[in-house]
Design goal:
eight-stranded parallel β-barrel; six-stranded mixed β-sheet; binds pyridoxal-5'-phosphate
């Protein structure tokens, strides 16, 4: 048994999907499982989310892993494909394609070749309504639509999406501007549309759409700068848990860890736990960041090492080798740890390293 592991609560995952389903009204759900399902394990999460209407991944390899695991539901490639070889692979595995650049339409137009028309093709046309990352310019949409509608497929599904840059913002100004442009561009089109990821789904401005694309909220975390998933009715899916591998008395005046940056102001009990930046904890986590031991918070003392952290457990009941240490989980929100690290929960969850075994329950 590994000293550190990430326990994945698939019941919580399904609970969160239910909360999202209610929040989404009648919209269908493309559950975003890119980046190893935000560190939670692509395949187990894909399997657990059997009730999602589709799964969405960033890259071809992720889609292929889901298919190889026997998942037959719709899978959307959020970045589409960029070569003929990738396109053939994607279609062979019935992956749905985002098209964000005219080059990708060209690839589709060159398709038929020997095999005749494709049986089923689902194309999600992505429009850039202001984020300036991926997407066709608004003025490119009419021509793109024309070309996509003429693609050689027996069954052709076309959907239109955009991505919001500031859905987590309180004022909603940028969101309203993007929504207005998207509404104008898609007005009267006979196609389903999609705008919302986590922040828009739980945010101030209702953005609507036929499909929603939640990622972070599936895993029970909040996309907002304040509060945590529980405020939204969500349950954290991952508990990152380790254990104490040493306990020592540190006399007042001595220091702990690399750089001797932390000094005991009184006689202290310091527990060393098996978790470090080699496991994905940011080295920048400052002293004072809490971990949970015996259900109580205790502060980090000194720097995060590759394989270890030091925790001041002076105020806690006795701690021994083997005592469990929770880095984050339902009782210690990852959002809070992210704030200590000066980052967002997305980054902490994705950063959990392959060295940390996933314990799927
Ligand atoms: C990653 C991603 C999402 C999910 O975002 P969350 O903030 O995790 O909900 C949705 N749509 C697109 C296009 C994405 O790239």
């Amino acid at each position: 048994m590994s000293l550190i592991r990430a326990v994945i609560d698939t019941g919580a995952l399904r609970h969160n999907l239910g909360v999202i389903r209610k929040r989404a009204g009648g919209a269908r759900i493309a559950a975003v499982v890119k980046a190893n399902a935000y560190g939670h394990g692509l395949v187990p999460v894909g399997v657990a989310l059997a009730e999602a209407d589709a799964l969405a991944v960033a890259r071809l390899e992720e889609g292929l892993l889901l298919r190889a695991a026997g998942i037959t539901r719709p899978i959307v490639l959020l970045e589409g494909v960029l070569s003929r070889a990738q396109l053939e692979e994607a279609l062979h595995h019935r992956l749905e394609l985002v098209v964000h650049d005219p080059l990708q339409i060209e690839l589709l137009e060159q398709l038929p070749a020997a095999g005749g028309p494709v049986q089923a093709l689902a194309v999600w046309i992505k429009i850039d309504t202001g984020m300036n990352r991926l997407g066709l310019r608004p003025k490119e949409l009419p021509a793109a639509l024309e070309r996509v509608r003429r693609l050689p497929a027996r069954r052709l599904t076309i959907r239109v999406l955009t991505h919001l840059a500031c859905a987590d913002a309180r004022d909603g100004e940028m969101t309203r501007r993007q929504m207005a442009l998207f509404a104008e561009l898609t007005h009267g089109l006979p196609h389903e549309v999609s705008l919302a990821s986590s922040a828009a789904l739980f945010g101030q401005v209702p953005v609507g759409g036929d499909w929603v694309r939640p990622g972070l909220v599936l895993y029970g975390a909040s996309p907002f700068g304040e509060g945590c998933g529980a405020d939204l009715g969500l349950v954290p899916v991952m508990s990152l848990t380790s254990q104490v591998i040493a306990v020592r008395q540190v006399p007042a005046g001595e220091t702990v860890g690399y750089g001797a940056t932390w000094r005991a102001t009184r006689d202290c009990r310091i527990a060393i736990a098996a978790a470090g930046y080699g496991d994905g904890l940011p080295r920048g986590l400052p002293a004072g960041t809490p971990v949970l031991i015996h259900g109580r918070r205790a502060p980090l003392a000194g720097r995060v090492s590759m394989d270890m952290i030091a925790v001041d457990v002076s105020a806690l009941p006795p701690v021994t080798i083997g005592t469990p240490v929770l880095l984050w989980g339902p009782e210690l929100p990852v959002e809070e740890i992210a704030r200590h690290a000066g980052t967002i929960p997305y980054e902490l969850l994705c950063a959990v390293s392959p060295r940390v075994p996933l314990d799927v329950q």
